[in-house]
Amino acid sequence: MVRMHVWLRKKDEMTDEQFREYWVSTHAPIARDGYEHLAGYVIHAVTRAPEGQERPYDGIAELTWEDRDGFSADMKSEAGRKGTEDLPNFTSAFGVLFVDEIVVA
Questions:
Q1: pLDDT for res 74
Q2: Which helix (H) or strand (E) holds 75?
Q3: Residue 61's CB: how many other CB atoms inside 10 A?
């Protein structure tokens, strides 16, 4: 399984609510409806940080594919291009990580 985490920082002029609404209603459907091989897409919206700490980002997207070929095909697709081009509409920064899931409990 290919598991990708994308951390996102909202645009400074957006409220948390505006950021989440755009992400869920406008951005996420690009992948959900356009990636032919996508197995899962989960949004983890940050609600707060411990007292005295600043949030390093405002949310994490977790996208999964059954295999590398499906991932590669989706990244090369029109939806892959559209998703990348849409990021500046609601983020000031983002980063991508590929992860292995290790279940502890």
A1: 97
A2: helix 68-75
A3: 21
User: What does the pLDDT look like over 76-98, one tens digit per residue?
Assistant: 999 999 999 999 999 999 999 99
- Are the C-beta atoms of residues 33 and 13 closer than 8 Å to each other? no
CA distances from 15 to 9, 11, 18, 24, 60 (A): 11, 8, 5, 14, 17
d(CA 21, CA 75) in angstroms, rounded, equals 24
Tokens of 11: 């645009």
User: How far is the CA of 50 from the CAs of 10, 20, 26, 61, 75, in angstroms?
Assistant: 19, 20, 30, 21, 35
* Pairing status of strand 38-45 against strand 59-65: antiparallel
